[in-house]
Amino acid sequence: MIWIAAVFFPLVLAAVCMLPGACLRAGFRMIFLAPLPALLLAFTTQGTAEFELTFFLLESRLGFGPHGKTFLLITSLSWLFASLFTALGPRGSLGKRSFCVMFLLTMCGNLGLVLSRDAVSFYTFFALMTFCAYSLIVHSKKDSAYTAGRIYLIMAVLGEGMLMAGIITSVFLSPSHYFDQISPALGSLSPGHPVFIFLFAGFGVKAGLIFLHFWLPLAHPAAPTPASAVLSAAMIKAGILGWMNFFPLGLVPFASWASVLMTLGLGGAFFGAMAGLGEREPKIILAYSSISQMGLMVFCLGLGFLDQNLWIMAGPVLFLLVFNHALSKTALFLGIEVMYSVSVSRGKKTWTAMLMAVPALALAGAPFTGGSQAKYLLKEVLGAAALSGFFSWVISISSGLTALLMIHFIRQAASAKKHYPCYAGRNMTWICLVVIILILPWIFYELYPRNRIQWMDPLLFTSSLWPVLAGLAAYVILRHKVYPATREIFGVLPGSAEIIDRTWHHLKHRLKTRGVMESLSARMNLVRFSDNFVQSKMVQKISHELERWFRSWSVSVFLFILMIITIALMAWTGA
After folding, report:
1. 514, burial (CB in 10 Å: exposed 0-12, middle 13-18, buried 19+)
2. How big is the CA angle at 279 (ends 273 and 281), to the nearest 5 degrees?
3. Which of 47, 369, 384, 480 has its CA 20 to 30 Å from the CA of residue 144?
4. Whole-angstrom distance, CA of residue 220 vs CA of residue 232
5. Rounded to whole angstroms, how far apart are CA atoms 160 and 164?
6. For residue range 68-89, what is the model confidence (pLDDT) as tens digits?
């Protein structure tokens, strides 16, 4: 039952939130309980255990696989701290039924796709997470939020179309829809097969890959802070996980795809860091930081494509990068609201900025942080691949740019003229997360014994210290020139998101005004007949009555609880 609870327990709390009055308030305060079964599963279950769901979809299978346990731990921790931050704050807009239910449904999709071991359930949970997240982005109902949501939805639908084509093709070419049979089957194909292009583009949108990243800088500032935290820390990693599930990693070398991933990864790492320096809104800066850090992870993934034996080294390093980024980015997003608290005086604000520097330094790879270990081991992988010379310097330079970007972020967050109410519970939650980031090297030491390194190794200390010092020196020297110069450089580039938005409105207008829609053949076809039928008074009256009936709490809650009970009974009988 722990497997069922890990995925579907957020649905139970969503049912509680759908009840009126005191039940909604109780569900809002208990929202932090939703990821606990998944976290417990990650800590207590050993190996690559699996669980059959013969009643769900096409005999779905839940499990860890070769890398799911690490991703489940990362995902559940990010959702736990975001949920705690939500529950310990004011009810306000976050206490609304729409936010609570969609937050929990998005969590269910995220946890479900991490544990899915077959293509059908993976895509089901992936789509649930993707489209429920739209509601979180437009939650504030501002014009900027609707614009961000529209760009997100356009990119998501395009990505889902490519993903659907890739998944259907991969299942067609495989003996079954389970991942342990899909990857070997795809390994026998040519690297130029269309299935890889579909999967690459579909998951690339979610991963924030450069040229497919346009939704990220808009969605992060539009969503509430807890939603922004999980968008950047947990949900964006679904693209990485999707590539790892479908591509034949560790089975055959894919040199051509390795070149693509490494090139785009490094491009994203530098573009994200540079573009973020031209922004002043802290959330937008963190969004570009996510593009940069995801680029580094994609680069590491590309190293694993070079040779099947190299993935043995690159895989654990990728997990360290993902782990470090997820916790650090959750702390940075939640720290923004802590920084804005009205009770934070000048002295306390200084201490808050110093604490916020901990996850910032971890992202930059400063000494004695999890980031320094991950980047040091990444350079060892480069050495094993005979690529240590040029690329090691590139990784160090990207660390310096990240340090520069993080200093810019902390300065902008500290100088913002925003004031939020102060909640002690939220502040303590955030401090606990910062403490976990501080002890992350010890956690890595225990989780990955094969990658243990000496923390006081002079080479490790030197290689991780000088990029941070270089970034700090660059900011001190160019403090008043970084922002205007970067704005001028990137201001020349066209606004890709604005182009997408204008294209959408143009196509919609052309579709409405085209004369062919008013022709005799168009009026007589089945689509127009269906429209006239749906718009008839009789059908509208019936639909309004049904809508009023289903909108009543007694009916909707009954149906929802009936669904939960049915799933629980089928799980119990299946177990």
Report:
1. exposed
2. 115
3. 480
4. 8
5. 6
6. 788 899 999 999 999 999 888 8
